[in-house]
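Private note to self, pasted from the team thread so I don't lose it. Backbone tokens:
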């Protein structure tokens, strides 16, 4: 869409929390129905249909700057009736998240095939599936570590090498070692769901701060909310307590609600600056070209890296026994999203809702929609995509729908990224 034919207006983006005097910035006042069409286009809104389910998908980063392109990724696959879905929120660069998207689904698929073969005619125990999800996620991270250790087995090896020797080992646009190192310097969260062919069991594996929530209609005809994601961040008291227990006498292992005062998530794939001894960062990662793309300065937190690892790649797994759907009607759905969707509710004129309130609100919005549409949470038209409904609700911070606010958020001309990468999947069960 060309914006040039629409009138220019100015905005200070107060509703996004920009400080007074910051701006004004120009945006295009695109009216309905075109601004809704533009949202669907920019978010690549579409629906994936399988034999037994539909999945509404959106992924949005409206900044036109190529350096700000989204590092979110998602996958939806059907393995002979086993439904695999995942959302990955990359950070610091795309190398780690692209590697995980490439490797993790096939690793889980292979582990699942083995578990099914081992079980014979009986279904595998739910604990077997939980274990293979957890071990597969950890194996992807271990593979990254192993590649670095293959090049530089220990700190003693690094000590005898010069910087030039290290640079020649890891750098160069066609050097495969360069990509291996970059994958360790970047990172990603992982949120994975798996549903069995009979839709009797749902597993969700959480690593990082993405969110998963199950909406299900109860016997009273109302909608229940079950939160299945685990918020692995420095704002989670349980995670803070775990890290402090693992690193006693290190008062700054958690600082400003961040690990070592630098990274918000407490569990992730990659991010080996927080997992390997500090000499690997100083001698290997800091000699890599291209270098780091992090918001925190290395010298601010490297002195506190005393007893790694500080980040974990151990996913939390939750299993839910699903209630059978009534004839020809789905009465449950699963929402998977990156943390960007929740972050959009941060700036509101009213009291900011809690995470539980936000997730419950999503279930009620889509549940009521399913009731009114005959239990179809998504269909083939982008405008009916349930993930797109949630995205728009979040862009309004849960308030009244405002097409002009939407136009501001999608077309504002500002020299920085003004919202986090945001990905949403909504899947019927």
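Design output:
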């Amino acid at each position: 869409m060309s914006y040039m034919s629409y009138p220019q207006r100015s905005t200070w983006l107060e509703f996004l929390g920009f400080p007074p005097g910051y701006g004004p910035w120009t945006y295009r006042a695109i009216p309905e129905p075109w601004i809704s069409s533009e949202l669907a286009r920019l978010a690549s809104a579409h629906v994936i249909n399988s034999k037994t389910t539909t999945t509404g998908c959106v992924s949005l980063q409206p900044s036109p700057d190529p350096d700000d392109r989204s590092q979110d990724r998602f996958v939806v696959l059907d393995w002979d009736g086993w439904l695999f879905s995942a959302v990955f929120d990359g950070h610091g660069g795309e190398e780690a998240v692209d590697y995980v998207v490439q490797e993790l689904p096939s690793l889980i698929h292979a582990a699942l095939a083995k578990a099914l073969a081992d079980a014979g005619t009986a279904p595998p125990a739910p604990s077997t599936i939980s274990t293979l999800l957890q071990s597969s996620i950890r194996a992807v991270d271990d593979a990254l570590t192993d590649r670095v250790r293959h090049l530089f087995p220990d700190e003693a090896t690094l000590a005898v090498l010069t910087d030039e020797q290290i640079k020649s080992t890891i750098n160069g646009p066609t050097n495969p070692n360069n990509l291996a190192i970059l994958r360790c310097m970047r990172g990603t969260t992982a949120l994975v769901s798996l549903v069995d062919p009979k839709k009797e069991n749902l597993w969700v594996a959480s690593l990082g701060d993405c969110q998963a929530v199950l909406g299900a209609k109860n016997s009273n005809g109302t909608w229940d909310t079950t939160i299945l994601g685990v918020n692995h961040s420095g704002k989670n008291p349980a995670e803070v307590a775990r890290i402090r227990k693992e690193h006693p006498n290190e008062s700054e292992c958690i600082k400003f609600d961040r690990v070592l005062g630098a990274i918000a998530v407490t569990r992730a794939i990659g991010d080996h600056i927080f997992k390997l001894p500090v000499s690997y960062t100083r001698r290997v990662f800091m000699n890599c070209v291209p270098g780091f793309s992090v918001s925190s300065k290395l010298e601010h937190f490297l002195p506190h890296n005393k007893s790694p690892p500080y980040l974990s790649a151990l996913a939390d797994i939750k299993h839910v026994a699903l209630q059978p759907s009534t004839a020809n009607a789905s009465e449950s759905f699963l929402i998977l999203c990156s943390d960007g969707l929740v972050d959009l509710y941060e700036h509101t004129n009213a009291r900011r809702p809690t995470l539980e309130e936000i997730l419950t609100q999503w279930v009620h919005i889509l549940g009521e929609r399913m009731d009114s549409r005959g239990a179809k949470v998504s269909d083939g038209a982008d405008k009916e995509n349930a993930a797109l409904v949630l995205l728009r609700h979040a862009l309004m911070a849960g308030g009244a729908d405002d097409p002009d606010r939407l136009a501001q958020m999608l077309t504002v001309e500002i020299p920085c990224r003004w919202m986090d990468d945001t990905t949403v999947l909504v899947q019927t069960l």
